[in-house]
Predict the structure.
Amino acid sequence: MADVAFNEVDKIYDNGVQAVFDLTLDVHDGEFLVLVGPSGCGKTTALRMVAGLEDISGGTVSIGGRVVNNVSSKERDIAMVFQNYALYPHLSVAENIAFGLRLRKEAKAVINERVAWAAKLLDLTPYLDRRPKELSGGQRQRVAMGRAIVRKPQVFLMDEPLSNLDAKLRVQMRADIAKLQKELGTTTVYVTHDQIEAMTMGDRVAVMSKGVLQQVDAPQRLYDRPENLFVASFIGTPPMNLLDVPVQSANGGVSITLGGASLTLPDEVLREYPRVREYAGGNVAIGLRAGDLHPASDHADLPTFRARVELVESLGSESMAYFRVDNFTIRSEASRGRVVSTARTAAPDRRGAGRRRPEARPLLRQANGCATSLMARSQRSPRSR
């Protein structure tokens, strides 16, 4: 096992497109870290730089304390699981699992022992003589994982391994992969665009957007305490409602206007966000999780506002309500850095040519119009039969 460290890593392609900006991230020994973000955010590029499948334009990548920028893939002691399984159709399950060991010219007794061990761990023993075409999607993915784990590498790299599976099988495989990683204790970097996978599988989750690392934290802290509006809007299903609301201050209290109603902020909110007083007479962004909105009749102790319900979706155990209020919506944009009002300075790449880092962009952007759709979640009450 080993740790993985990105230190100010950049990736610039030959056509000048920069896919990763100044990535600094430590993956601890034995940790399951998930890289998550929308398509094109740079997560797979970062993973491929660890694997040695992409050159590093600037900075360093280390595995087990050793800088591997100029080390070939086969000498990095890593194993990778791909999205498309990458199995050999003419080989049996046992032969596919053993393929990497045979390339390394391991002894036949060692190969047989490790294949049997991996097959038992992954429930593949009854299928060792079958060809990949005779297996289900989940079984094929387990074969690909078996081929990776028999090598007993320092680091596992997984590039969206569940994206080709149906929804039910993804749920099962999520649990299987997380359980397997706990049993093996091998450092794992897992890439996905599915934030549910990220939240349920990772010890920590690193959120990326437009090539920039936005936040790294435990899944629950990402949900409870997002550091910027991109993370707030990306993490959580359904996404957080983000609104632009006016702030008023009177008689020592602070209130906001939501849906035409003035809502006084409780003391605990003011203690949590003391600077909100500074915005009296201006506007602030607020985030409302669907699960924190309730029918007024059920919670007389909470502030209330009126809204017109437009749609209710019944999901069995819960229902999702969509309604409108008279506030501006906010669409998040990825932060280029923690200080969002200044541009980064130019820095030379390893070829000596100067390049300009992208300027920091505002986190907020108002939408046209003032009719905003909100989402609220309601749990169904149990019914007697």
The first strand starts at residue 4 and ends at 12. Residues 261 and 305 are 6 Å apart (CA to CA).
